[in-house]
Design a protein that fits this description.
The complex is a heterodimer of chains A (about 325) and B (about 350). Chain A is about 75% helix and about 0% strand. Chain A has helices spanning about 1-30, 35-40, 45-55, 60-75, 85-120, 125-140, 145-160, 175-210, 210-220, 225-260, 265-275, 280-305. In chain B, helix 4 packs across helix 5 (about 140-150) and helix 4 runs parallel beside helix 7 (about 170-185). Classes of the chains: A mainly alpha (about 325), B alpha/beta (about 350).
């Protein structure tokens, strides 16, 4: 277990290094810098130059990178150029928003997707299977932002059940909080649910054809018991991997869906930073999302060993 | 004690009927209607071992699955009776048949590697039968599982209760399978090539165990095998299947001494012997015909050295001696083979 964690930590460090190198590279490729946003169009080249020196943007790129790595290693993601606060502060402030949307849609997608997929497997080639599979195909084919817009038109503008956008912190009332994130979470979840349902169905069908399920049937146990006690635990093993994958997809999805519902989460922070060339926020935000993604997959791998006794963490 | 009580109660209820009586069993592919098993009829008495032999594709495993009510959805019982303790299972609803599984008849599968649930502890796979089928409490089930593990010869049984299947050797896994089959006290035990996947030394141990249990509990054992050595060792009577039909049914001594079906003779001739000069092994030319591509008449006809015009009609199963039946025109007694 300790060896496993050490290996994974080393691997994660490499991934994070690559992510930050890539971010630096992309920022360098994109024309423009924060001075164009900070200063009036009438600013003189001297003013621009002074600001660039003040922000450290005049140094060669490798030196900027080394500076940044040095600070990150000591736990400091730097100061936002535009927001007048530290990057860490800005991220932490918006983190609960993004995490609640991502976590709720992940839970919805996994719970409903697995249930639907298993129902489909149990009614293989009969009408419940066909309904689940065509719904799943619809979910897979539709982009989450489009689904979000449709939800806004139908449930917010049309029926008035939910607000069209914005975010209410949970401290201001659980109901209000739930209503404010219901539509974005659902829009994100539905697109992933199709994927989960298809994988769950395939996994369950595979397991139900295994010899040990026939052994359980030969014991004279009820079908429900055989499916839940023998089928499900085995079918869940590959679904854990799927959960790790969609956790990544959902993190990416929040970036877009926060835009659609104008929700002040980490995704909108990063998009705003990209538009205004707020380099430290872009760097810090992407590094942060990468860390979250790596953590989720680490948890998935540990759960893997917990669910399947044949898996040894080493 | 309880086992003997319920067993004798069942014997009384069935009025002395054999443990298993299969009558005219015919199964077909749902899609094409082609027959998989055709007109199978035999009995297994309490305390008796019936060996079912035949090549791959002869329908041995299908026969066991049909009796268990565990045929794959593509295959269906078309005709016939499967009487266990005198009760025809083939006429029961799927739920009623399921209620008989484990309690009246149990099965040991060929592959101990895949036949146990990989994410469930070995003891739990036995204990769930005790809880669900015999209504035991968790504690009682754990104690009884331990006793069963000890009975089937699992060393260090207490520790093995909490082992996962992948932590056990093939032989131990097969012993766990046997413990599962014994758990609900079924009198009829179907074993589908229980030793094929095991080392030779382990094979003998498992066969000995099955034999001991049969004697001790008065089990009826239907043992499927393609190994004639196992047949000689274990069988009271032998059923030879060829391409889904009965070729021969005889007491073991009669079968080895006076095989009446050319297929049985060919099977016996293909056993290598250590006596005499080394010769080429005798093989049976050709292969078992596929389901849906069966020859007219006798299904062994294309591979049979004695085939003639009569063989274009299906040969009936006739008695050569009171308990010795074979389905062949060439060897049938004169008065029966017109």
């Amino acid at each position: 277990m300790i060896r496993f964690l050490a290996r994974r930590l080393a691997g994660s460090a490499v991934v994070l290094l690559l992510v930050s190198l890539l971010t630096f590279g992309l920022i360098w490729l994109v024309p423009g810098d924060p001075t164009t946003v900070l200063l009036e169009a009438s600013a003189t080249p001297e003013q621009v130059g002074r600001l660039r020196v003040a922000l450290g943007l005049d140094k060669p790129l490798p030196l900027q990178m080394l500076d940044w790595y040095g600070r990150v290693l000591s736990g400091d993601l730097g100061q936002s150029i535009l927001l007048n606060r530290s990057v860490t502060e800005a991220l932490l402030e918006r983190l609960p928003v993004t995490l609640s949307i991502a976590a709720i849609s992940l839970t919805l997608a996994v719970m409903l997707g697995v249930t639907a997929g298993i129902l489909a497997a149990l009614f293989h080639n009969r009408w419940p299977d066909q309904i689940v599979m065509s719904t799943a195909l619809f979910g897979l084919s539709v982009p989450d932002f489009w689904l979000g817009l449709v939800f806004v038109v139908v449930f917010a503008l049309g029926l008035g059940w939910f607000p069209t956008g914005g975010f209410t912190p949970i401290e201001q009332g659980v109901m209000e909080w739930a209503r404010s994130i219901a539509l974005p979470s659902l829009a994100l979840a539905l697109t992933q649910m199709g994927f989960v349902a298809r994988m769950a169905r395939a996994s369950m069908l595979d397991v139900l054809n295994q010899d040990f399920v026939r052994t359980a049937d030969a014991k004279g146990l009820s079908r429900t018991y055989v499916v839940l006690r023998h089928g499900l635990p085995n079918a869940l093993v590959p679904l854990l991997t799927v959960t790790g994958i969609i956790a990544g997809a959902l993190l990416g999805g929040t970036v877009v869906i926060e835009q659609v519902f104008s929700i002040p989460g980490v995704g909108r922070l990063i998009i705003g930073a990209i538009l205004s060339r707020d380099f430290p926020v872009i760097q810090g935000g992407l590094l942060f999302l990468a860390v979250v993604y790596l953590l989720v997959n680490l948890v998935v791998d540990i759960l893997y060993a917990a669910v399947d006794p044949r898996v040894r963490l080493a | 004690m309880r086992a003997a009580d319920t067993a004798s109660a069942r014997d009384a209820a069935s009025g002395g009927a054999p443990l298993l009586e299969v009558v005219g069993l015919t199964t077909t592919l749902v899609a094409t209607g082609a027959s998989v098993l055709e007109d199978i009829a035999f009995t297994v008495e309490a305390g008796e071992t019936l060996c079912v032999v035949g090549e791959s594709g002869s329908g041995k495993s299908m026969l066991a699955l049909a009796i268990m009510g565990l045929l794959p959805p593509a295959i269906r019982i078309r005709r016939g009776e499967i009487r266990v303790h005198g009760e025809d299972l083939a006429r029961l609803s799927p739920a009623e048949w399921r209620a008989r599984r484990g309690r009246d008849l149990a099965m040991i599968f060929q592959e101990p590697m895949t036949a146990l649930n990989p994410v469930m502890r070995a003891g739990a796979q036995v204990a769930e039968v005790l809880r669900k089928r015999r209504g035991m409490t968790d504690d009682a089930a754990r104690g009884e599982a331990l006793r069963l593990f000890e009975r089937v010869g699992i060393p260090n049984a207490r520790a093995r209760l909490s082992a996962y299947p992948h932590e056990l050797s093939g032989g131990l896994r097969q012993r766990v399978m046997i413990a599962i089959a014994l758990a609900a006290e079924a009198r009829l035990l179907l074993a589908d090539e229980p030793t094929t996947a095991l080392d030779v030394t382990i094979q003998a141990q498992i066969l000995d165990l099955l034999n001991d249990l049969r004697r001790e509990r008065g089990l009826g054992l239907m043992l499927i095998t393609h190994d004639l050595g196992v047949v000689a060792e274990m069988a009271d009577r032998v059923l030879v299947l060829y391409a889904g039909r009965m070729a021969e049914l005889a007491p073991v001594a009669a079968l080895f001494d006076r095989p009446m079906h050319p297929y049985t003779r060919a099977l016996l001739a293909s056993i290598p012997t250590s006596e005499g000069p080394r010769t080429r092994l005798v093989a049976i030319d050709g292969a078992v015909p596929a389901v849906g591509a069966m020859p007219q008449g006798c299904r062994f006809r294309p591979r049979c050295p004695h085939a003639d015009a009569r063989c274009e009609a299906v040969p009936p199963l006739v008695a050569h001696e009171p308990r010795h039946h074979a389905a062949c025109w060439a060897t049938a007694p004169e008065d029966r083979a017109s």
